[in-house]
């Protein structure tokens, strides 16, 4: 699958732009702030119906304009898929597939698999546990709709349970039986979500470690620990034990919405002890493992968006990375970089067709 052309109107910094794309490698080069990342983001937007960098739709409309349109033609299984995403101030976003408007944007997810590797991924290391859970959930959900639906049910029940705890506090009462009605519905969901996460990580971890070893060409030991209260305590016990605390806090303090992933390098948290290059290598390996996982499960090779990829990596890691993507495992790739010469020199070492767009 690949994108053959991309057309933008009033998308972020672009008034109008057209790109006829190469089937393999496309590089967008130019100075800081020129719009390289915006092009990659437009492709992400076409695939996943939202921006990777700014989920607030109106803020993706060019300043002073009323609407944006992104359209692109993908060639998938020898069929053309024309996708259009448009948004007008004050109106809902419209996504069309071959001229037909989707009733629900979620119906589009999965048609065009895309993986982005960007400096913004550092949030996965620096930010709170919800960022890492979102990543974990998005990778699993893409190929497991039961998991996705369980998560939706679970989150709804937690919201309702929290509302009940607030009601108890406001009315100075406590009804353990009413709380248990929620706990009984939550318990099987907690068990399933926890088990799916454990099983997923067992499969994902070796792929991730393998990519890290390739990029770093070293024996630096990296791993991902799945932190969860559910490893040692049953869901039923957890909810019962936390009842008093939850009453006091007025929210549910235990459950799979408190799980986290701990990223380590040589057994130490990478957040505190990893260099910038090691952190970038870690995140790149994480995203490439996501790529591999989606590819294996869906049978479709995702489009790979490499934003500012050469920044902070030493020459050795850059060349390892390029060696890796110069492989039949990968399909169409988009790269953004500030240096035309550097990009061209690196890309020329591959035996792939490429186009360079100077912005
Ligand atoms: N809604 C918008 N309307 C107009 N301009 C916008 C909008 N949103 C973002 N921009 C502009 O887009 C530019 C950023 O573009 P982008 O992030 O693609 O740059 P870049 O070429 O990747 O830069 P760098 O090399 O620094 O990463 C900024 O100048 C920003 O002001």
TrEMBL record:
<dbReference type="GO" id="GO:0003697">
    <property type="term" value="F:single-stranded DNA binding"/>
</dbReference>
<keyword id="KW-0963">Cytoplasm</keyword>
<dbReference type="GO" id="GO:0009432">
    <property type="term" value="P:SOS response"/>
</dbReference>
<dbReference type="InterPro" id="IPR018078">
    <property type="entry name" value="DNA-binding_RecF_CS"/>
</dbReference>
<comment type="similarity">
    <text>Belongs to the RecF family.</text>
</comment>
<feature type="binding site">
    <location>
        <begin position="30"/>
        <end position="37"/>
    </location>
    <ligand>
        <name>ATP</name>
    </ligand>
</feature>
<dbReference type="InterPro" id="IPR003395">
    <property type="entry name" value="RecF/RecN/SMC_N"/>
</dbReference>
<dbReference type="GO" id="GO:0006302">
    <property type="term" value="P:double-strand break repair"/>
</dbReference>
<feature type="domain" description="RecF/RecN/SMC N-terminal">
    <location>
        <begin position="3"/>
        <end position="342"/>
    </location>
</feature>
<keyword id="KW-0238">DNA-binding</keyword>
<keyword id="KW-0235">DNA replication</keyword>
<dbReference type="InterPro" id="IPR001238">
    <property type="entry name" value="DNA-binding_RecF"/>
</dbReference>
<dbReference type="GO" id="GO:0005524">
    <property type="term" value="F:ATP binding"/>
</dbReference>
<comment type="function">
    <text>The RecF protein is involved in DNA metabolism; it is required for DNA replication and normal SOS inducibility. RecF binds preferentially to single-stranded, linear DNA. It also seems to bind ATP.</text>
</comment>
<dbReference type="GO" id="GO:0005737">
    <property type="term" value="C:cytoplasm"/>
</dbReference>
<keyword id="KW-0234">DNA repair</keyword>
<dbReference type="GO" id="GO:0006260">
    <property type="term" value="P:DNA replication"/>
</dbReference>
<keyword id="KW-0067">ATP-binding</keyword>
<dbReference type="InterPro" id="IPR042174">
    <property type="entry name" value="RecF_2"/>
</dbReference>
<dbReference type="GO" id="GO:0000731">
    <property type="term" value="P:DNA synthesis involved in DNA repair"/>
</dbReference>
<protein>
    <recommendedName>
        <fullName>DNA replication and repair protein RecF</fullName>
    </recommendedName>
</protein>
<dbReference type="Pfam" id="PF02463">
    <property type="entry name" value="SMC_N"/>
</dbReference>
<keyword id="KW-0227">DNA damage</keyword>
<dbReference type="InterPro" id="IPR027417">
    <property type="entry name" value="P-loop_NTPase"/>
</dbReference>
<keyword id="KW-0547">Nucleotide-binding</keyword>
<keyword id="KW-0742">SOS response</keyword>
